[in-house]
Design goal:
By secondary structure, this protein is mainly α. It contains eight helices and no strands. Helix 3 packs antiparallel against helix 6, helix 4 crosses helix 5 and helix 6 packs across helix 8. One of its GO terms (cellular component) is mitochondrion. One of its GO terms (molecular function) is flavin adenine dinucleotide binding. Its cofactor is FAD.
Amino acid sequence: MPSQGAIANRRFLVLLMAAIAFVSVISWALSSPRPIDSTFSSTPIHKVSVSDDTLKGDAIMGKIGNETLKAELGRAAWKLFHTTMAKFPDKPTQDEQTALFSYIHLFARLYPCGECASHFRLILNKFPPQVSTRSNAAAWACHVHNEVNKSLNRQLFDCSKIGDFYDCGCADEDDEGKKTMKTTTRAAGNTDRIDLQVEKSGPTRGG
């Protein structure tokens, strides 16, 4: 009959082996390659190909019933819109012009206020985005902003002051761009001087 000491030693060995096995399993599990979560991976979930129908389709979002929220959204959106134009390159490449053109149309489609987006779409159809230069983009943005103001019976904005009102926040190394923005928008106070294209449908890219 085994002694008490032998039984204790046997139990210790069993526990030791179990502990070693447990540690081995955990180590193997941690070191095994895991499947990559594709939700936030760098690989696109689907091929990106933006068609003209996608750019110029109907508004996607629904109506906003809260008038206070709608007004706050509008102020924030216009600040983003005008600041984007103020920071746009003065001599953009064709790719940069296409990017801004697409952004403006998608901005209209995805704007959170559906009824506002639908109205802005009508304005875009009549006054296509002008993206050939920073000054044209800024002056065009002010013009369409005033088109919205007209529809709401609001006071029209003096487009010659758009560069001062919506400061681009340019860094020191971009001071020249900031000066250009203020100079060209003063000249754009008369929107007839920026050659705005008026079209009922089928606006072309560029400005």
